[in-house]
Amino acid sequence: MSLSGQPGLDEVEALFEAVVEGRVSRDEADRWAAGWVADDSLVWDDLTRWALNLLYGIDLPAGPDEGYLHDDDQVREWLTELQRRKAS
User: Fold this and answer.
1) What is the rounded distance in angstroms from the CA atom of residue 51 to the CA atom of residue 7?
2) Rounded to whole angstroms, what are the CA distances from 73 to 5, 56, 69, 77, 78?
3) Please, what sign has the CA dihedral across residues 14, 57, 8, 88?
4) Of 14, 37, 64, 73, which residue has the fewest beta carbons closer than 10 angstroms?
5) Cβ-count burial of 45 within 10 angstroms (0-12 exposed, 13-18 middle, 19+ buried)?
6) Is 5 part of any domain?
7) Structural domain harbouring 57
């Protein structure tokens, strides 16, 4: 994913899918989303903002020497919810 041009919902969804499939690390997804979330000059629709905010923080640890705060099942649930909201 590049930082050229503001991403749309399809690109955000594709990044979620890449994380779920293990093609993109959680750290990469977090860093990518952080750049967009931090840019206050951008305007987002509600669903894209919601999804970006989930990606921003997707790599938070549950604690020292523990797994992620949000486990793989929860990330898959977020993707499913994103797809459900997008379709409606």
Assistant:
1) 12
2) 31, 17, 11, 6, 9
3) positive
4) 64
5) exposed
6) no
7) 14-65+72-87
What is the domain count for the chain? Answer: 1
Residue 3 lies in a domain: no
- The amino acid present at 80, given as its one-letter code, is T
| Other C-beta atoms lying within 10 Å of the C-beta of residue 52 | 21
Cβ within 8 Å of residue 52, ≥6 positions away: 12, 33, 36, 37, 44
Q: Please provide the size of the chain in residues.
A: 88
Mean pLDDT of the chain: 93
pTM of the model: 0.89
Phi, psi of 36, rounded to the nearest 5 degrees: -80, -40
Out of 2-11, 33-42, 59-68, which region has the weakest mean confidence (pLDDT)?
2-11
